[in-house]
Design brief:
Elements (H helix, E strand, L loop, with lengths): L3 E6 H15 L7 E5 L1 H6 L2 H8 L5 E4 L2 H9 L6 E3 L6 H5 L3 E4 L2 H14 L3 E6 L13 H10 L3 E7 L8 H18 L7 E5 L13 E2 L20 E6 L2 E5 L4 E2 L5 E2 L4 E6 L16 E4 L2 E6 L7 E4 L11 E8 L2 E3 L1 H8 L3 H11 L1 E5 L5
Parallel strand pairs: 1-20, 2-3, 2-9, 3-4, 4-5, 5-6, 6-7, 7-8, 8-9
Antiparallel strand pairs: 1-10, 10-18, 11-14, 12-13, 14-17, 15-16, 15-18, 16-17, 18-19
The protein binds pyridoxal-5'-phosphate.
The site of pyridoxal-5'-phosphate (PLP) has 12 residues, from loops.
Pathway: Amino-acid biosynthesis; D-alanine biosynthesis; D-alanine from L-alanine: step 1/1
Protein name: Alanine racemase
Pfam family, one: Ala_racemase_C
């Protein structure tokens, strides 16, 4: 069987969680953390990540109901906020906290909550400039209407930043959110306000009562690069090494032709594993502590690498696609740069296809 392994360091995850807390502490120590574990915790495995963070955070955030169901069925008892799902039945079945982004959705939840005889906590999403989901018509009035629905308890009011790296625009989004907050404060419902993702954490005014970090927990942020530890390492093994003369074409389309006698390695990973085709002739991998280039077009299941500068390498040698080895390091940011995408896509793509192995936190 081929090796394609994502090693997930849960100690690094906890470290990153504490880094988030340390950033919050001097500004707003009571700010709660909603740990975002959608998309299988950005490819790190939502169940393991949630187990490691449970009891440390206020709640978990997932995109869809089925993700929450998996967490519940794995014994996760914490609050789970479902960001993007308007299904009603499962919310009650799994004891979840839905994000309401539409009045009709709130009505349907209220109806079911009455039937079940429970008071359902919900977070209401309002539009402030993301242009995706959220109440955009008279948000405060709508919140008031929702607050009056039977068996609905507004526990939170949230929005989402669309361009946190842009200070001016983020300030405007925060201003819009503050305006809604001011109006809602007259309604005597006292919800938890939250707007910030990982990037927004650099703006003290964006913190409100809670934040929703995802990427930062997994070890990535432009602003806190030194403080964070990437949690995911992806490795494979060389399945063949071939000594080819100058002028040999490599892979589909002959996009690479050896310029000299070369040692070409073959690794059993390709775009079907989330190792993007865009990485063709661009990416590097680490072999025996040395960075070597990907050569030729990345195939569906195979990729070629140039081992000429690592002459003593052997079949079955480990190849690091993502992570550290010796003095060398390849980050999700590096891969994202080569593939012209963002680290989010790198982690979700590579992490969800590789076989995961966990480095556990020490029991305390
Ligand atoms: C994904 C997501 C987050 C987390 O974003 P990061 O940039 O990973 O911190 C927060 N809130 C919502 C609504 C999201 O969809």
């Amino acid at each position: 069987m081929r090796l394609l392994e994502a090693e997930i360091d849960l100690k690094a995850l906890i470290h990153n969680f504490h880094t988030v807390k340390a950033v919050l502490k001097p500004i707003n120590p009571s700010c709660r953390i909603i740990a975002i574990v959608k998309a299988d915790a950005y490819g790190h495995g939502a169940v393991e990540v949630a187990r490691a963070l449970e009891k440390r955070c206020f709640a978990f955030g997932v995109a869809f109901l089925e993700e929450a169901a998996i967490l519940r069925e794995s014994g996760i008892k914490s609050k789970i906020i479902v960001l993007f799902d308007r299904e009603v039945e499962g919310i009650f079945k799994y004891d979840l906290t839905p994000v309401v982004f539409d009045f009709k959705q709130a009505q349907a939840l209220s109806k079911q909550a009455q039937k079940k005889g429970v008071a359902l906590p919900v977070h209401i999403k309002v539009e402030t400039g993301m242009g995706r989901l959220g109440i955009y018509n008279a948000p405060c009035k709508t919140i008031k209407k929702i607050a009056q629905l039977p068996n609905i308890k507004i526990e939170g009011v949230m929005s989402h930043l669309s361009e946190a790296e842009n200070k001016e625009w983020t300030t405007e989004q925060i201003r819009r959110f503050q305006e809604i907050q001011k109006c809602v404060s007259n309604l005597e419902i006292n919800p938890v306000f939250h707007i910030s993702n990982s990037h927004g954490i650099i703006y003290p005014e964006a913190l409100f009562d809670a934040i929703r970090p995802g990427l930062m927990l997994y070890g990535y942020s432009q602003n806190f690069e030194k403080e964070l530890k990437p949690c995911m390492k992806v490795k494979t093994k060389i399945i063949d090494i071939r000594r080819l003369p100058k002028g040999s074409p490599i892979s589909y389309g002959r996009t690479f032709i050896t310029k000299k006698a070369s040692l070409i390695g073959v690794i059993p990973v390709g775009y079907a594993d989330g190792y993007f085709r865009k990485l063709t002739n661009r990416a590097k991998v680490i072999v025996r502590g040395k960075k070597v280039p990907v050569v030729g077009t990345v195939c569906m299941d195979l990729t070629m690498i140039d081992l000429t500068d690592v002459p003593d390498t052997e079949i079955d040698d480990e190849v690091i696609l993502l992570g550290e080895s010796g003095n060398e390091k390849i980050t999700a940011q590096d891969i994202a740069g080569w593939a012209e995408t963002i680290p989010y896509e790198v982690l979700t793509s590579l992490g969800s296809r590789a076989k995961r192995k966990y480095i556990k936190e020490e029991a305390c």
